[in-house]
Amino acid sequence: MIEALTRPTTLHLLPELCLRLADPALAVWQSPDAWHAPGSPGQGHDEPWWAFAWAGGQAIARYLLDHPDTVRGRRVLAFAAGCGVEAIAAARAGASHVIATEIDPLCEPAIAANAAINSVNVHVTIADVIGSALHDQDVVLAGDVFYEQQLGERIWPWLHDFVARGGTVLVGDPGRTWLPVNRLRRLATYSARSQSHVEDDAVRNVGVFTIAPNPSP
């Protein structure tokens, strides 16, 4: 199903990578309702977040490829990994071990397919990891996760605690409403498109941020 509904794609911001992403010419992507229509591939599944390279994830991936020392030799967790673009970039940049986490079971084969295309190893865990201790991780990648208030309020204390214990967090976001920008330090800005039916496909300035060692709770 994933092969039928996606096409190998190279993004302008990430010419080094190839990802299987939704082809906008395919009828199933013409409206949000099409994915869930009776008889459609998405019937009984969540929204196909794994079929798009979101802008924040693209920006994190670009940053890691440009600054491989951020993850080289370190253990990385790509949170809410979607299509796996940040995880794949981390592996390419020399991370010693990369885990991609998601709650949608379809993300597992999607990320595996994208990792294989790019000849890297990424381990996928289907679980809600918010609140877990992450003792075995050095870096957390969090692209496009502050898109609603309730989720942001769950995520921030978890990331705050991880950084307070010595971890590193990279956040990628095009400036959504619930991004706690006053608590973050901007590392870089890139231009990217989200390429989905949920957000418009306009080119946006997308920030890559880190959380300072002593962030506000």
Description:
- By secondary structure, this protein is of the alpha/beta class.
- The chain has a single domain, classed as Rossmann fold.
- The chain has five helices and nine strands.
- The mean pLDDT is 88.
Name a few traits of the molecule.
217 residues, alpha/beta, Rossmann fold, 7-stranded mixed sheet, two-stranded antiparallel sheet, 5 helices, 24% helix, globular
**What value does the Rg take, in angstroms?**
16 Å
Query: Considering the protein shown, what is the CATH homologous superfamily?
Result: Vaccinia Virus protein VP39
Low-confidence segments, given as residue ranges, are none
- Tell me the domain tally: 1
Q: State the strand order across the main sheet.
A: 5-4-3-6-7-9-8
How many strands in all?
9
Residues in helix, %:
10-25%
SS element count, helices: 5
- CATH architecture title: 3-Layer(aba) Sandwich
What would the average pLDDT be, to the nearest integer? 88
Distance between the termini: 43 Å
Please summarize the sheet with the most strands. 7 strands, mixed
CATH overall fold name: Rossmann fold
What is the top-level CATH class? Answer: Alpha Beta
Blueprint of the fold:
Layout: H1 2-5, E1 6-11, E2 14-22, H2 55-66, E3 75-79, H3 85-92, E4 97-102, H4 107-117, E5 123-126, E6 139-143, H5 149-164, E7 168-173, E8 185-192, E9 204-210
Parallel strand pairs: 3-4, 3-6, 4-5, 6-7
Antiparallel strand pairs: 1-2, 7-9, 8-9
What's the gist of this structure?
It contains five helices and nine strands.
